[in-house]
């Protein structure tokens, strides 16, 4: 791998290699913090043109644990705010001897554009582009599912909520189907479902009670109000009534089902606090696993 831009098209063996490599770093992601010198002397630039808490911070922690030098460009204080183009920004940072760009951008395809443009020794990792893809979130979600459920080929997984605007849903669907999950369900109101979901190999449900029956894994999605641009917005109360994960709805899933959410959560909109903080939730574990997974991805694309 030279870049990580999307999970779509990644072979199963490559995904498993990332997960296995992450497992070898996992003890480093606990409290026993040790550095490894794999990226010693390399310069990692975090370019977050959209806000982030989890992804930006865990990339920084991961890069530092690999002994890289990390630079977080403050986009609001950068010359991008004066109108400098994306590629001019990249050219200038490349002239500062960048080795790896971690890019989040509101425009789908921005990391691909950068990857086509940079010199061959520079690597690009997509940290979320528009509605398109969030591959490291998809990989850390797979790591989490494998950690709790071991065998992908015996699972029913439900992805619930604002699928239309979700780059996480797309990355998770590609990863789950590639890893051999026999039943991937998406549950959403028709207004938040993109056309042609079935062609991705998923079963579509608009009734949450129906869709949650017997599932082993529930991945809740954030209602992405900032991407709706005048679309039919459900009221928070209405949405919560039909698609919010409550204890009552969770009881329809398998008794040992795990509850995931990429964050940030809208409590009381897509998930009730009693579920988000309950014993079946693995949401904060996802964040911790994200460090090891991002170490794995960076070491695979940019390591010796
Ligand atoms: N899951 C996720 O991408 O969270 P952030 O937006 O905080 O990075």
TrEMBL record:
The Aspartate/ornithine carbamoyltransferase carbamoyl-P binding domain is annotated at: 3-146
Q: Which GO terms describe its biological process?
A: 'de novo' pyrimidine nucleobase biosynthetic process; 'de novo' UMP biosynthetic process; amino acid metabolic process
Positions of carbamoyl phosphate binding:
54-55, 104, 134, 137, 263-264
The reaction(s) annotated as catalysed by this protein in its Swiss-Prot or TrEMBL entry are: carbamoyl phosphate + L-aspartate = N-carbamoyl-L-aspartate + phosphate + H(+)
Task: Report the InterPro entries cross-referenced here.
Answer: Asp/Orn_carbamoyltranf_P-bd, Asp/Orn_carbamoylTrfase, Asp/Orn_carbamoylTrfase_sf, Asp_carbamoyltransf, Asp_carbamoyltransf_Asp/Orn-bd
EC number(s) stated in the UniProt entry for this protein: 2.1.3.2
Keyword annotations for this protein, in alphabetical order, are: Pyrimidine biosynthesis, Transferase
- Domain Aspartate/ornithine carbamoyltransferase Asp/Orn-binding: residue ranges: 154-300
According to UniProt, this protein's pathway is:
Pyrimidine metabolism; UMP biosynthesis via de novo pathway; (S)-dihydroorotate from bicarbonate: step 2/3
**Cellular component per GO, a single term:** cytosol
Task: Tell me which Gene3D superfamilies the record gives.
Answer: Aspartate/ornithine carbamoyltransferase (3.40.50.1370)
User: What positions does the entry give for L-aspartate binding?
Assistant: 82, 167, 222
Instruction: Report the enzyme's class at the first EC level.
Output: transferase
User: Which GO MF terms are attached to this record?
Assistant: amino acid binding; aspartate carbamoyltransferase activity
Function description: Catalyzes the condensation of carbamoyl phosphate and aspartate to form carbamoyl aspartate and inorganic phosphate, the committed step in the de novo pyrimidine nucleotide biosynthesis pathway.
Q: How does it assemble?
A: Heterododecamer (2C3:3R2) of six catalytic PyrB chains organized as two trimers (C3), and six regulatory PyrI chains organized as three dimers (R2).
* Family label: Belongs to the aspartate/ornithine carbamoyltransferase superfamily. ATCase family.
PANTHER family assigned: ASPARTATE CARBAMOYLTRANSFERASE, ORNITHINE CARBAMOYLTRANSFERASE, MITOCHONDRIAL
Name of the protein: Aspartate carbamoyltransferase
Name the source organism: Pigmentiphaga litoralis
Gene name linked to the record: pyrB
């Amino acid at each position: 791998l030279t870049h990580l831009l999307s999970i779509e098209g990644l072979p199963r063996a490559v995904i498993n290699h990332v997960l296995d490599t992450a497992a070898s770093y996992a003890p480093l992601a606990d409290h026993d913090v040790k550095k490894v010198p794999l990226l010693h002397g390399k310069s990692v630039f975090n370019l977050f043109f959209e806000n982030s808490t989890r992804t930006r911070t865990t990339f920084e922690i991961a890069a530092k644990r690999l002994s890289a030098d990390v630079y977080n460009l403050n986009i609001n204080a950068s010359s991008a705010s004066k109108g400098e183009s994306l590629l001019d920004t990249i050219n200038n940072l490349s002239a500062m001897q960048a080795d790896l760009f971690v890019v989040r951008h509101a425009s789908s395809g921005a990391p691909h554009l950068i990857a086509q443009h940079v010199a061959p020794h520079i690597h690009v990792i997509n940290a979320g582009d528009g509605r398109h893809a969030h591959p490291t979130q998809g990989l850390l979600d797979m790591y989490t599912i494998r950690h709790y459920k071991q065998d992908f080929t015996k699972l029913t997984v439900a992805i619930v909520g604002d699928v239309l605007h979700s780059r996480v849903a797309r990355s998770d669907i590609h990863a789950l189907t590639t890893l051999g999950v026999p039943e991937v369900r998406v549950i959403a109101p028709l207004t938040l479902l993109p056309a042609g979901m079935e062609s991705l190999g998923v079963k579509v449900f608009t009734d949450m009670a129906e869709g949650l029956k017997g599932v082993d894994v529930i991945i809740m999605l954030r209602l992405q109000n900032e991407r709706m641009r005048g679309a039919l917005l459900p009221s928070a109360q209405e949405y919560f009534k039909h698609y919010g994960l409550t204890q009552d709805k969770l009881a329809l899933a398998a008794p040992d089902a795990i509850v995931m959410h990429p964050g940030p959560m809208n409590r009381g909109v897509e998930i009730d606090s009693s579920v988000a903080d309950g014993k079946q939730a693995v949401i904060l574990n996802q964040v911790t696993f994200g460090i090891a997974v991002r170490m794995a991805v960076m070491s695979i694309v940019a390591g010796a």
